[in-house]
Amino acid sequence: MSSGIKRVEKGVTNVNLLEEIQNYWNHRYTGYSKVNEKELEGTQRESWKQQLQRLLPANQNVKVLDIGTGPGFFTIILEELGYTTITGIDVSNNMLEVAKENIQKYGKGHSSIQLMKMDAQNLDFKPESFDIIVSRNLTWNLEKPQQAYSEWLKVLKPNGTLLIFDANWYAFLQNESLEKEFEKKRQKAVEEKLEDYWQGEGIDEEKMDWIVQQLPLTYQQRPQWDIDYFSSLEGISVETEENFGDLVWDYEEQLNYGATPMFCIKIVKGDK
Question: What structural domains and CATH numbers belong to the chain?
Answer without folding.
Answer: 17-170+221-251+262-269 (3.40.50.150)
